Amino acid sequence: MAQASTGRKARPLSPHLQIWRWGPAMAVSILHRVSGNGLAVVGLGALLCWLGALVGGEASYANFAAQAGTWYGRIVLIGISWAFFNHLCSGLRHFVLDIGAGFEVKSNNIWSIVSIVLGALLTAAFWAVLLLR
Amino acid sequence: MGNGTSIGRVRGLGSSHNGAHHWLIQRFTAIGNLVLTVWFAVSLLLLPDFAYTTLRDWFASPVSASGMALLIISTFWHARVGLQVVIEDYLHDHGNKFAALAALNLVVFGAVAFGLFCVARLALGAA
C-alpha cells in the first residue's frame, strides 16, 4: 500500500463517461436521473402552481389554464408527463433489479430498452386519451 | 487517513450508517408514488373537463383531498431523498454540500406545507 501513504491525491480514479461504450443500461440510468430531477423541480413546481391557482379563485385558475393551453405550456406539460411515465417505467425496472433479477446482459439490455420505449408509449397514450375523449 | 488498520484506511471515505434506511425510504415512497400518481393520472382522465367548478367539486370529495394530501407528502419525500443523492454525487466540497442539503430541506418542507394548505383550503371550502 505505497499509494495510501502519499495521501488522498494519489488514490486511483475510475474511468469516466468518455471511456465506456454507451449501452442501454447507461441510457436508462441517466434518463431515470434526468426525469426524476425534472419531475422534482418542474413537475412538483407545476403541481403547486396548479393548486395555488385553484385556491386563488376562478380568475387565477383561468390564467393558469390559459398559460397551460399555449404552445410553451403544452411543451412543459408534455415534458412533465414524459418524465413521469419514463421515471415510472425505469423505477419499476429498479424494483425488479432490487430483488436480484435481470442482471444478465441480454435481459438487462432488453428491459432497459423496453422501459424507455414503454415510457414514451404511455406518454403518447395518456395524451391521446386526454385529447380524443 | 491512517495507513495501518483496515478501519483507519476507510474512515472518513464512506457512508455513515444511514445508507440502508435512506435506500428503504426511497423504495417505500416509490411504492406510495406508484399508487398515488397512477390514481391521480386516472382521476384526471376520468374528469369530464378541467373547468374551475369541476375541479372544486373534485377536491371537495374526502377521497380526492386525502389522496392529494398523501400524494404531496409521498412525492416530495421521494424527491427530497432523490435530490439528496444527486447533490451527494456531484458536490464534493463539504461546505457546499451541506449548504445545498440545507437549502433542499428548507424548500421541500416549505413546498409540502404550501401544498397541504392548498388542499385543505380546497377541501374545506371558504371560496
TrEMBL record, chain A:
Report the locations given in the UniProt record. Answer: Membrane
The way this protein sits in the membrane is described as: Multi-pass membrane protein
Q: What cofactor is this protein dependent on?
A: heme
Main localization of the protein? membrane
Q: Mark the transmembrane ranges.
A: 39-59, 71-89, 110-132
Keywords, in A-Z order: Heme, Iron, Membrane, Metal-binding, Transmembrane, Transmembrane helix
- Do you know which InterPro entries this protein is assigned to? SQR/QFR_C/D, Succ_DH_cyt_bsu_CS, Succ_DH_cytb556, SuccDH_FuR_B_TM-su
This chain's function reads: Membrane-anchoring subunit of succinate dehydrogenase (SDH).
Looking up NCBIfam families in the UniProt record yields: succ_dehyd_cytB
Q: How does it assemble?
A: Part of an enzyme complex containing four subunits: a flavoprotein, an iron-sulfur protein, plus two membrane-anchoring proteins, SdhC and SdhD. The complex can form homotrimers.
Family per record = Belongs to the cytochrome b560 family.
Query: What name does UniProt use for this protein?
Result: Succinate dehydrogenase cytochrome b556 subunit
Annotated source species: Novosphingobium ovatum
Q: Which gene encodes it?
A: sdhC
From TrEMBL, chain B:
Function of the protein: Membrane-anchoring subunit of succinate dehydrogenase (SDH).
Cofactor(s) listed: heme
- Protein's name according to its UniProt entry: Succinate dehydrogenase hydrophobic membrane anchor subunit
* Key words of the record: Cell inner membrane, Cell membrane, Electron transport, Heme, Iron, Membrane, Metal-binding, Transmembrane, Transmembrane helix, Transport, Tricarboxylic acid cycle
SUPFAM superfamilies documented for this protein? Fumarate reductase respiratory complex transmembrane subunits
Gene name linked to the record = sdhD
Pathway the protein acts in: Carbohydrate metabolism; tricarboxylic acid cycle
Gene3D superfamilies annotated for this entry? Answer: Fumarate reductase/succinate dehydrogenase, transmembrane subunit
